[in-house]
Amino acid sequence: MQVTKKSQEDKAWDQFINDDLPLEIQNLVSEVVGLPFPIDTRSIAYVNIDSRSCKIIRLVVTQRNNRNVTFLKLSEPTIPLERTLTLNNRQDDFLLHIENEEDLRMSFILTILDKKEQAEREEMAQRKDMEKIEREEEERKAVLNILRLEAQERVYSGKEIKQKNDELIEQKMAQRAAEAKERPIHMSPEQWEWNKKTGRMYSSRETGMVQSQSNSTFNQAEDKYTIQQREKFKEKLLTHPIKGDQFIGGPPSKWRGFILKWIKTHQEEDSLIVSMKVLLSDMNASGITFNQKDSHIQHPVKEFLLFYQERLKREMKRKVNVIFVD
Asked: HSE-up of 9 (CA within 13 Å, CB side)?
């Protein structure tokens, strides 16, 4: 008996996954959930009379043998019974789908990307744990070797080694005492080392205050630190994982670098007003290509802008309000 059926919306799922997705995404879907290509989407409708609703389960057969059949669920929308029983434009079947079925398809792909990212994080964590265990084992062996050598040296040298060690300790103590006697009492060891290396003097013992470095030296150090922080912040923006990176052609650093330049042009004080239509049009005009519809490209672009806003506040101590107008 035939339990499932093939509706127009099932064919739309077939078109989306078999033909519209780039080969890279298809390979990812096959790897993560074992989806065979080309797929043949089917659906089952469950009617609830009490709530006057209908649940549509869309699925694909992934494995079949003599006794069992394994399915992969693609979506599970629930729609009002009145819409379910409405005929489509061809008048040859019921609608059997919600208005925003396109969002369900995009949600399915984003779920696959989440699973792939989670698997990579777990694999990296396991690899780090193994590396840590191996490193600790090597350190333990090294410590044992050192202890073994020290024990052998004590057996062979005995009192002679102890005498030499005592003499070395006494020399170090005498050296430290001489250095402490030479150092002014109002200076810390770090201040005294700075004084000896640079030749710069500190103020008198009465004040106990350390002479400040020149403003130019301080500003140079501060500028260098600011540049390092800015470069570190930019590198994190260009390399942080973003869901849907694969939807945009070229390396992620290319389109993200363009958006950072776009931000410099359009940001006004503490506000950044973003029209996704304008931004995507500017990206296209600069030579950046898209592998999906503009409505899908908005997801990774918007996530990157929100990540920029959050990291800017946390790392650069700057607050910028990102406002989306469409």
From this structure: 25
